Amino acid sequence: MRALSIVHVVFSSRIAGGEHHCIDLANAQAALGHVVHVVGPAGSAVRHALDPRVTFHGLRLPVLRGARVRRLACQLGADIVHGHLGPACKAVAMATHRVRVGTLHVGYKAHHHARMDALVCVNSAQIDHLKEFGGVHRVIHNWAPERNAGACATAERSASLRAELGLDAQALVIGCVGRLHAAKGMHTLIQAFQRHAPEDAHLVLIGEGPQRAELESLRGDDPRVHLLGFRWNVDELLGEMDLYVSSSLEEQFPLAILEAMRAGLPIVATATLGAREMLDPAQSAIVPVDDATAMGQAMASALGRRRHDRRPIAYDMARYDRSTAVQATLGLYRDALERRGAAARDGVSLNVEDVRG
What we know:
The chain is an alpha/beta fold and 357 residues long. Helices cover 35% and strands 18% of the residues.
């Protein structure tokens, strides 16, 4: 199998779940000997987390991005142009002379994904929404990327979580990792915590985003609620926690839940598509979306058990193997390349309009 020339596109300045997946996939592909590029905003934090073997291309202005991605893909001789998150997939769709791939980090949207040649579904439920999609598609589960201070050359190592917050070893710590955005449901999480958590418990929110001011206001003067901002050393922080809560209103396949599973933490999660596919109800509590009472009661129950038993939970992580997922993604690329090559030999166009016809 020859090495591929792969261009990943992600138009995010900050790093959240989809960006982490793009970074780790690009790094893994480069380590296997493929020629890998990543396109993003010039000031993106993504570039600092990439392996030195991956070349970053920064776009200084957010204008005509589709045309610029298409031109750059041609200049680089790309076999594959892979979009991550909606705006990137919309731009990748214009690279009509390359195999265009999109990952459904936030679900299928025709105006972002219909013109792709191939789609990566991150959960099996997404297949039901692809009835009009004419390209290649495959379910490839995400994996939990390594997120520690050593993963980024510019990251600084910090003190332990409990030392930083002045907590003793017996304090109960609840964690949530994600962008501070209304879709992540952290406002409901704070309400659930303040109403139902024991007095000696602490809630730690890791991430940054536009909802910070609202969440700080909701926290008020409660010294038990901590907003740490973005941190690289998520794995280390999770290792000091007692419970993980995923409070999202909608999630396709949250990497943070995988990280909490890898850390062996008990988990309370809202009943999103991703959580329902990833978690065994016998090991975790799955509660209704945006229900502070149900979430708070589940948290209190989990913490009550945690006081007496802090042994890690043994989750089955076999389905979320990094090497397997990377190889499956490369297999999808090759299937899409073969399909395009066969169509070219037969003189058939693979534009979406022809496929639908």
